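Researcher: Good morning. I'm working through a list of sequences from a screen, and I'd like to move beyond sequence-only analysis. For each chain I'm collecting a predicted structure so we can compare shapes side by side. This is the next one on the list. No need for commentary yet; just the structure.
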Amino acid sequence: MNCRGCGSELGIVLIDIGHSAISNDLIQESDLTGPQTRYPLKVMTCATCSFTQLSESLERDALFTSDYVYYSSFSQTWLKHSQVFSEKMISRFALTDTELVLEVASNDGYLLQYFKESGVQVLGIEPAENVAQAAIQKGVPTISEFFGLALAKKLSSEGICPKLMVANNVLAHVPDIHDFVSGFSEILHPNGVITFEFPHLSNLLLENQFDTIYHEHFSYLSFEALEPIFSKYSLEIFDVERLLTHGGSLRLYVGFLGEHALNQDAISTVISLESEWNPLDEAIRKTFQDRSRQVKYDLLEELLGLKKEAKRVVGYGAAAKGNTLLNYAGINSDLIDYVVDLNPAKQGKYLPGSLIQVVGIEHLELFPPDVVLILPWNLSAEIHTHLKHLLSDRTKYFVAIPKVSYLS
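Model: Good morning. Structure tokens for this chain:
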């Protein structure tokens, strides 16, 4: 396989998680007896440009289907993040009602709704038809297509020229990153701005976040690997922020070369961090694989011990990262009775691989747990606070990333 960043041959394995089912491909009850297809989850790093990616990429149409089950609006933490972001962008770039904000992978309108409320023109692009329809019902204009150079040219020919383009947590989901980035260069206003947010590879390594590796994430991104790709399309990163979201993310501010003043201090800080947590460092790679394997052993030991004590253990949050964890550890309904999720599109289905049933929150009252494993650990504070008001004071809560640990 060749690197999707620079085309060089790939030879360095960052981590091998084995074979796993597609994380967001939940199973209908009628399909429980059928075969489940599992695909390799091996992450490679390019020795030439450090671009980090899956060894094998599935077709995007198989991953982002018309019944895609991820809706951003079910997380209050993420909604608040989006509202604060919209206010900051409107202020920083003096956006008015004559200018357009275009979001790529706009999901259910979770973010653009705040720009719209402020009077700024908005347009979303969301390939999952059912999710796009949810945005349209909120009054957020949305095109249900995959974004790339062809769509950008079509929109540009129709006079669409956004002053701000937003791409939050989508860059990792793109199989052809060159086609994707060139689309931004094609349509962006001459002195416009693009913001990209994505989980930072350095944090993945530092905090042992191996569960964020799944088939929908084609790439694991860094400033260093992205800089030459942007440059190829006359774009440059002029500012960068480190965020707490998704366990540690970067927000890149990108514009055409020379159009914006560089924040050299912020850029240097990120480059220094990436130098310290470099996937090309053999010791870093070995430590990452060893720590990930230890989580598997510790989680199995903890769950087996709880079952021996006749404790009812349930999961909370049918998140994609949770499916990577459960599949990697070989956990099923023998160890976890059920998983609660607030999203009705997931309820009544079964997690891929583990075949643990996903249920509504009322299940917690009908079959109260002794212990709750919070699978979306990045939202553990929000979830922990919410559940403490619903469950017994004796209920315990724990996470598995970066290591198996109970919440106080």
